[in-house]
Design goal:
This protein is α/β, with parallel strands linked by helices and 378 residues long. It is 39% helix and 18% strand.
Length: 378
């Protein structure tokens, strides 16, 4: 199981410091969680991930079920031994794939809507490539096309075999263009699945419940009330939180007030560099984001001066490190010119170098924010 202790609360905001203790070590919060979808951080070996200061990873239940399968992982001693990661681990529930392989694929959109759009998903609508029922979701495997079913019982069974320190209850991440009627039925399903996820757990792994409700505060309040009344070890916040960053920050602040202060809070799948301060100020303890490594593989470096596109030829004559204020090994050892050369030469190591720097940048930023909370200035 886990134990969470708040060590300091800010008087300037909802921000807080904490220690999240797990069977595989303690996590200083607030903290970023690296996304190891298929039991790996893309382009980085685990020793390098440790060197970035990353304290905690989250793996993807749905994709690990597809390959190599939870039975294979369990045979090798669980995820920690299988992937050679000695620090804490989370596994998601597969609920995000209900969206990403369903309405997300149909409508070609992410869970956060860019700009405005009319409601496109109404009550009783179904995605083209999967079927959502009150018992669970019938998928078509993106690997081999076979039919597979995932519900709360199945999700928890898989996660228990994977053996992470923290599991998440099975839920539905609704599309950002869902109407209130669809959100209503989706929310009811998520609440039923939360109870069923708790009932299915037989291990001592921690289990977080997930609050949904889209961009509607009243639905979020209802979901928080129902989910926090259940005996979860912590709480996740999923789905869309508004169409712009100001709305998201305000919604997160409201969510922070609705969740029990003594239990850890995790923000699912959100975290561009410009979002992090608002996430911390809202009182979130952990958040996961593919942003540092996804952008790194595509040549975008995050620095104290902003984003750099390392594929641009203008950097070929630049002898400076990616970020002169960064102390990571990439910034110590390599110039912008060299990294740009690697990208333009299509060398795989380019993706590794910028991904390493970006993860280091995120962890350094969180360390500074923790220090600001400690000093009472955040």
């Amino acid at each position: 199981m886990i134990h969470f202790r708040v060590t300091k609360r800010s008087k300037q905001s909802r921000a807080r410091l904490g220690i999240l203790s797990t069977p595989h070590g303690d996590i200083e919060t607030p903290a970023v969680v690296g996304v190891a979808t298929q039991a790996a951080i893309k382009a980085l070996p685990m020793d390098d991930v440790v060197a970035t200061g990353t304290q905690l990873l989250i793996c993807n239940t749905f994709h690990l079920h597809l390959k190599p399968g939870e039975a294979v992982v369990k045979k090798h001693g669980g995820l920690h031994r299988f992937m050679h990661w000695k620090r804490p681990l989370m596994t998601d529930s597969g609920g995000f794939q209900v969206f990403s392989l369903g309405f997300g694929r149909d409508l070609n959109m992410g869970k956060i809507l860019k700009g405005t759009s009319r409601e496109k998903v109404r009550a009783h609508d179904q995605p083209q490539s999967l079927t959502i029922t009150d018992r669970g979701v019938r998928f078509r495997s993106p690997v081999d096309g076979r039919s597979l079913f995932l519900g709360p019982k199945e999700s928890i069974a898989i996660q228990q075999k994977l053996g992470a320190d923290v599991m998440f209850a099975f839920d539905e991440c609704p599309p950002p263009v869902a109407g209130t009627a669809y959100l209503r039925q989706s929310l009811d399903r998520t609440h039923r699945w939360a109870e069923q996820s708790l009932a299915a757990r037989t291990s001592r792994q921690a289990l977080y419940g997930i609050v949904q409700g889209g961009k509607y505060l009243k639905l979020r309040e209802e979901s928080a009330r129902i989910i926090t009344a259940l005996p979860f070890d912590g709480f996740g916040i999923g789905g869309e939180l508004g169409g712009d960053k100001t709305t998201m920050a305000r919604m997160l602040g409201w969510m922070g007030d609705l969740l029990p202060p003594e239990k850890p809070r995790h923000l699912l799948g959100t975290g561009h560099p410009e979002d992090i301060l608002g996430i911390v100020r809202a009182g979130m303890d952990t958040f996961d984001s593919i942003t540092p490594t996804h952008y790194g593989r595509h040549g975008v470096a995050f620095t104290s001066a902003g984003r750099l596109d390392m594929k641009k030829s203008i950097f070929l004559k630049d002898t400076r490190p990616l970020d002169p204020k960064c102390g990571c090994k990439v910034c110590r050892d390599h110039s912008r010119a060299y990294i740009t050369h690697l990208f333009r030469a299509k060398e795989i190591s380019a993706m590794s170098l910028v991904s390493f720097h970006n993860l280091s940048f995120y962890n350094d930023y969180l360390a500074h924010l923790r220090q600001d909370i400690r000093k009472g200035v955040l």
